[in-house]
Each structure stands twice: as C-alpha cells, then as structure tokens.
Specification:
Chain lengths: ~200, ~300
C-alpha cells in the first residue's frame, strides 16, 4: 500500500515518522500528479484554512475530493478532521473542505491555545488501554451522520470518528511515540477499504 | 481522566502545526482579515510594524488589549502578540487575553536588560528570537517553545536573517560532529545547559520548531529562508508596507510551500508592485540594530 502525506503545510514530518514506524514508506504530496501514485492519504495537523487554500491554488482540491468520493482511504488529524468534514461551524467565511465524512465539526471547539491540553482517553479499537491524546486548539464533532462511528470521546464530545474508508481525530497521535492510531488506520481502515475496492 | 494544559508537548506541538507556513504582522482587524484570506497560518498583533517603530522611534510596548481582541474576533487562525523582553506583566496580560502565542521580542524596547521572562510559569507558549545556537538554547531553557532566528526587523534587508540562520544551523552541525566527551566544553562555550546541548547533538536539530524573521520582503526571500532550513517564516513590515499587501501576502505563502521549486517562486514573484522600501542593515548605526537586543 502506498500512503501519501499531504505536505502543503503543517506537521507533515511527524506523520511521516509515525507511518514509517508502522512499516509503510510514505511519500509527500504537493502536486496533482503525485496523487496518482498513492492508495491512501494522511492529512496532517496544521491550519485548515491555509491547507484548503493552498490545495485550491495548486490544483489539488478537486482531485482529492474526487479520490475521497471514489473511496480512497484517508486519515486526518485536527486540521485533517476539519478538511474531511462535510460541514463545519466557526469556519472562516467561504472556507471549503474536501468532505466525505458525514459529520459537523466545530473548529477550535475546545478553545484557544491556553485551553489546549493532553489527556488519557479510551479509543474503541478493541483494546482497553488508554491512549495519550494531545489536543491543540482542537475541534470536536458536533453531529455524526449515517455510516459514521464514534471511536473516542472527551466530556461527551466525539473526538475520533470513522466511516468505511475515512478516519478522523481531533487530537494529534503523531506528536506522541504511541503509533496505535496510525496502525489502526493502516490495518483496520485502509487495508479493508482497499480490498473491497479491488 | 485528567486534562492537563500548558504542557511542553502542547506548547511545542502548537508550533509544529504552524510549520511550512507564514505568520504575518498586522496592526488592525482589516489587515488580519487580509492575512487570513491570503493563507497566513497565524497573525502577530502589534501596534506598529517594525519599520514604523524604526521610523518613529520612542519606546515600543505591548499592544492595546482592545486592538488585540478586535483582531481575535476578526479571524479564526491563531493570534500571537508581542511582549517586551523581561516584561512578565505584559506577558500575563497577553495570556489573560487568550492570545495563542507570545513573542518575547527584541522589536519592542526591552524592559529588562539582564533577564528574560521565566516562560515556564505560563500556560501560553512563547516564541523568542536568537542570533546563534547558544542564545536559542538559553531561551529554550527559560521555557521558549519555539525559536525564530532574528533578522534586522523593519529593514527589508534579508542579510541578517540569513547570517543568523547559517550561524544556528552551522553550530548544530558542528555539535553533531563532536565526540560525546567534547560536549561539556561545547556547552560551556555556547553558554547553554549541557542537557540541551547533548539533545541537539544527538538529534541534529533544535528540540523546538525554528522559524525565521526579520527583513523578509519578497517570495524569493521566504523561499531562501526555507531552503536554509527554516520551518516557516515570519513576515513583519514586508507585507503591509508594500504596494499590494493582499497579493504579496498570498505570493509569500505560495513561495513558502514550494520553496524548492523556482518556477512556483517565479510565478509568485510576478507583478507584485512595489516591495517595501529597504534600509541596508550596514547603514544602521549599531544602537539602532534590534537584533542585538537579547543575550
């Protein structure tokens, strides 16, 4: 499986390290042609408004949207979650998203940087071990539509969700040494989704 | 389930999210909107851009809280603000306003010529300037969660930013080449804590994100600094002191993302109109050089 990391802006390097630790050899994606060589995509943390604008300017926006609609597995953390949401609130005027996940995400829902936090939370991948989750000016999921399952919550707010081929977290597993979420994406989301397409 | 705020990981992590981006100086809500629309990853709220501080002289201080709050209300991206070196009360005020990052900045007039702010005492993260590795590590030791190489702010002359970036990265490369038993003396020479020196020698990079600042005025300047190893770019006077701020801002964002592709940088550089009027750093008398502030 070839995995790309959208490398327009954000903590690309950390996602690449996490993916390498999971045994995949990711490539960075900044150009439309580079999309043709990947089976799955990771959208990093960063500034969702900046990433969306750069994607638009460099012609990546429509192709990524189409690939997602056609079933390409994608994992998005924080800004990546916002970009995968069909609907966002507290958005900048006319802010666009790739969409694909039938959820409504509230940007900066946990507050400003002084409210950013880390916490041990449970993640519904079959393990009862807690996971250290780092939330930075983090969004949460306000509404979950059909076909979307909640995998983690903080104070009743959904902070990790998945559909058949898309995974999104409000927090940043790439900032910790625990690669469980990336492994979950590869093994439990991307691989089964790609098998189904074939 | 205990939620902990203000941890090192949360503070440094915030800077990781800004990587590959441009942070722009703005003095009002309209400019902040223009910066956000142009793709800035954050804005720096300040009362006067460095070029005006330089032109008007006098003591430069923290901005009016009203102005900062108006900017916070106007944009959804992070809002940073500057406190004077050593002025921990200005920093407390900025933290209470909920700014996302504090720049303890030599562009403002220092409040303390000996001590910087003890940044561990704050929940909000700090970025500090540095001209060399020792200075960067002293700031990190005081709790800075992000470093920016200093340039000569408000000049539009990129030479100082270049020099300091080379200096910092050169010293990091040198550390990586030393034997472990030579790091004690290296720490002494750098006037920096041994633990940090050892960490840098092992990893070959700073333990925090390294941006660059000071004198960056064109897309090619931004790309130059990225190719020197900066994680991202601060642009101060360069945007709103130019002929066409919106277009120049967007062009600098594009050039920062594709710093390694001269075609994109060329396209970004087309038809931008007047760049800010520059001042050669060499023409500045030493007392007027901002980069020398901080120690």
């Amino acid at each position: 499986m070839k995995v790309g990391v959208l490398a327009l802006q954000g903590d690309v390097r950390e996602h690449i390290s996490a993916l390498i630790a999971c045994g995949v050899h990711p490539t960075t994606i900044r150009r439309t042609a580079e999309l043709d060589h990947i089976d799955a995509l990771v959208i990093p943390g960063g500034e969702s408004t900046t990433i969306a604008q750069l994607a638009e300017i460099f012609g990546l926006f429509a192709p990524i949207k189409q690939r997602i609609a056609a079933g390409m597995p994608v994992y998005g953390s924080c800004a990546g979650m916002i970009l995968l949401a069909n609907e966002i609130t507290e958005a900048k005027d006319d802010q666009k998203t790739f969409g694909g996940l039938d959820i409504t995400v509230k940007r900066n829902a946990f507050g400003r940087q002084v409210d950013s936090f880390e916490s041990d939370i449970s993640f519904d991948d079959g393990s009862t071990d807690l996971i250290r989750a780092v939330f930075i000016r983090a969004p949460w999921v306000e509404r979950v539509g059909k076909g979307v399952r909640v995998l983690a919550r903080v104070d009743d707010h959904a902070v990790a969700v998945r559909s058949t081929h898309l995974l999104a977290t409000s927090f940043h597993p790439e900032l910790t040494a625990d690669h469980r979420i990336h492994r979950y994406f590869i093994d439990e989301v991307a691989k089964p989704a790609l098998q189904k397409v074939q | 389930m205990a939620e902990v705020t203000g941890t090192g990981r949360v503070k440094r992590g915030m800077a990781e999210m800004l990587k590959g981006g441009v942070i722009m100086d703005v003095v009002n809500a309209e400019q902040a909107k223009i910066a956000e629309d142009a793709g800035a990853v954050a804005v720096m709220a300040l009362e006067r851009v460095p070029a005006d501080i330089r032109a008007q002289g006098g003591v430069a201080r923290m901005s009016d809280p009203d102005m900062i709050e108006k900017i916070q209300a106007a944009v959804s991206i992070p809002v940073m603000a500057k406190a004077r070196i050593g002025h921990f009360v200005e920093a407390q005020v900025l933290q209470s306003l909920g700014v996302d990052y504090i720049d303890e900045s030599e562009v403002l007039t220092p409040a303390d010529y000996k001590n910087h702010i003890d940044k561990w005492n704050f929940t909000v993260p700090f970025v500090c300037g540095a001209t060399n590795l020792g200075e960067a590590l002293r700031r990190i030791n005081e709790g800075a969660a992000m470093i920016r190489s200093k340039g000569e702010a408000g000049t539009g002359d990129v030479s100082n930013a270049m020099q300091h970036m080379r200096e910092i990265n050169g010293e990091i490369r040198r550390l990586s080449s030393l034997r472990e038993d030579e790091l004690y003396v290296a720490a002494k020479e750098l006037q920096a804590p041994y633990e940090l020196v050892k960490e840098v020698a092992e990893k070959g990079k700073l333990p925090v994100v390294l941006f660059t600042a000071g004198g960056i005025a064109t897309p090619a300047d931004a790309a130059l600094m990225m190719s020197m190893g900066a994680d991202g770019v601060f642009i101060g006077s360069g945007i709103f002191k130019s002929g066409n701020p919106a277009q120049r801002a967007a062009a600098c964002v594009r050039a920062t993302t594709f710093w390694d592709d001269p075609k994109v940088v060329a396209d970004a550089s087309r038809g931008l109109g007047e760049a800010m009027v520059g001042i050669n750093v060499a023409d500045l008398p030493a007392p007027h050089r901002l980069a020398d502030r901080g120690w």
